[in-house]
């Protein structure tokens, strides 16, 4: 179980690194200005949009896929815990871990 | 420092951020405060990154370090998954609430709040080592009802040391606040989580720190989606920050086991103090 978590982190990090290399050395964008916040840059906010862009080789989208994988690791951890409690007939903790899972998924998919 | 002024290329900028994040991650691991509290001042004060981008990048790195290190502790038998999940109901809810209202709070306010939380995290009283045993007889406590009591491998090396948990509602309430802080500031709130578990619920030190470790990643994930949608997480920034902090925290955790920490702790506490005061000052004068 712990190994799964660690593997997830390193896979996500690997994807981000790959995207980073494309971003820095293939696309060669000029350095961005982070001193001011632009919320219209949230064009990368929608998940389906991110996947479409990544398949076209967009570096920022590839990095964001890595970000999503990173976010998914603890979610997977909770999901596996819920499954384990189901298997051991611990109904109370199936409910509790499911509540946490619902909160997590709400934050990821429906947060506005 | 941005590209237009100095003529730094994107790879050079990323390398600088990577190096800084590495140091931040190492410092976070050595002080036990986590990467989040160091990386945000670093990004805002040194690189002049807008606080919102800094919070977004920090949150992702917090998930990385939490999931990267939590693994070992579950195997060792210290972290109590039930306590973690039970309290996560409060923390995740708090994280969503915190992220939701983060938009409404001006960044100067966030910077000041951040500095205060940083001060607390660095100088909070060290947890004592205590074991509470439940008294037999009498009504079933909330802890027993929710199966929160547990055991960890004995210091003697043989068998298990059992412990009970108390003041569950108080711990739950503090965890809600920890979650809100995490959602507002993009930090792990590890110190507040340990406060709830150690001081309020009297969970043994090693159990509370390891369980907190596992919870931090879950809490951060709850608000991460909201931050992503709002564009707080910029890929060009999050990438070097996450990679740097992750690498730094893994190295720092290794050093923690080898090095003599007490003198280093004093140095780090001073650094954190300076950072915290700078954040408060910059927030109060409107520079962040």
How far apart, in Å, are the first and last alpha carbons of chain B? 14 Å
Mean pLDDT of chain B: 82
Largest interface (CB < 8 Å): A-B, 68 and 67 residues
Q: What count of helical segments of chain A does DSSP give?
A: 4
Unreliable spans of chain A: none
Report, as a whole number of angstroms, the end-to-end distance of chain A: 32 Å
Q: What's the main sheet of chain B like?
A: 2 strands, antiparallel
Q: Write down the secondary-structure element order of chain A.
A: HHHH
Q: How many individual domains of chain A?
A: 1
Which helices and strands, and how do they pair?
The complex is a heterodimer of chains A (112) and B (288).
Chain A: H1 2-26, H2 47-55, H3 59-87, H4 91-109
Helix pairs in contact in A: 1-3, 2-3, 3-4
Chain B: H1 3-6, H2 10-31, H3 36-46, H4 51-76, H5 81-102, H6 107-123, H7 142-145, E1 150-153, E2 160-163, H8 168-185, H9 190-200, H10 205-230, H11 235-258, H12 261-284
Antiparallel strand pairs in B: 1-2
Helix pairs in contact in B: 2-3, 2-11, 3-4, 3-12, 4-10, 4-11, 5-8, 5-10, 6-12, 8-9, 9-10
Could you explain how this protein is built, in words?
The complex is a heterodimer of chains A (112) and B (288). Chain A has 112 residues and is mainly alpha-helical. Chain A contains 4 helices and no strands. Chain A has one domain. Chain A is elongated and about 55 Å long. By secondary structure, chain B is an all-alpha fold. In chain B, strands 1-2 form a two-stranded antiparallel ribbon. In chain B, strand 1 and strand 2 form a beta hairpin. The two termini of chain B are 14 Å apart.
Provide a concise account of the structure shown.
The complex is a heterodimer of chains A (112) and B (288). Chain A has four helices and no strands.
Core attributes:
heterodimer, A: 112 residues, mainly alpha, 73% helix, 0% strand, elongated, B: 288 residues, 12 helices, globular
């Amino acid at each position: 179980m712990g190994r799964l978590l660690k593997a997830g982190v390193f896979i996500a990090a690997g994807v981000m690194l790959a995207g980073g290399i494309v971003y820095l050395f293939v696309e060669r964008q000029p350095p961005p200005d982070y001193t001011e916040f632009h919320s219209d840059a949230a064009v990368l906010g929608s998940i389906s949009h991110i996947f479409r862009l990544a398949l076209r080789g967009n570096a920022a989208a590839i990095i964001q896929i890595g970000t999503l994988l990173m976010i998914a690791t603890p979610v997977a951890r909770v999901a596996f815990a819920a499954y384990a409690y189901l298997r051991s007939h611990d109904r109370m903790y199936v409910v509790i871990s499911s509540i946490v899972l619902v909160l997590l998924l709400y934050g990821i998919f429906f947060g506005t | 420092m941005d590209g237009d002024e100095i003529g730094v290329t994107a790879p050079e900028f990323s390398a600088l951020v990577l190096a800084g994040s590495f140091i931040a991650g190492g410092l976070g691991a050595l002080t036990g405060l986590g990467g989040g509290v160091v990386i945000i001042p670093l990004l805002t004060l040194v690189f002049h990154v807008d606080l919102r981008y800094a919070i977004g990048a920090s949150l992702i790195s917090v998930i990385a370090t939490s999931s990267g290190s939590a693994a070992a502790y579950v195997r060792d038998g210290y972290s109590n998954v039930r306590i973690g999940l039970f309290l996560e109901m409060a923390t995740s809810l708090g994280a969503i609430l915190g992220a939701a209202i983060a938009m409404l709070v001006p960044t100067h306010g966030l910077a000041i709040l951040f500095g205060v939380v940083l001060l607390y995290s660095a100088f909070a009283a060290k947890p004592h080592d205590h074991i509470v045993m439940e008294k037999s007889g009498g009504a079933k406590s909330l802890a027993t009802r929710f199966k929160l009591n547990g055991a960890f491998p004995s210091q003697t090396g043989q068998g298990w040391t059992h412990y009970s948990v108390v003041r569950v509602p108080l711990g739950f309430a503090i965890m809600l606040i920890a979650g809100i802080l995490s959602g507002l500031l993009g930090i792990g709130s590890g110190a507040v989580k340990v406060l709830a578990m150690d001081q309020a619920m009297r969970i043994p030190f090693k159990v509370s720190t390891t369980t907190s470790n596992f919870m931090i990643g879950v809490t951060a994930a709850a608000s991460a989606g909201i931050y992503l949608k709002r564009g707080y997480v910029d890929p060009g920034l999050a990438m070097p920050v996450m990679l740097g902090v992750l690498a730094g925290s893994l190295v720092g955790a290794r050093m923690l086991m080898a090095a003599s920490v007490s003198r280093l702790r004093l140095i780090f506490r001073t650094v954190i103090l300076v950072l915290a005061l700078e954040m408060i000052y910059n927030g109060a004068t409107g520079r962040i």
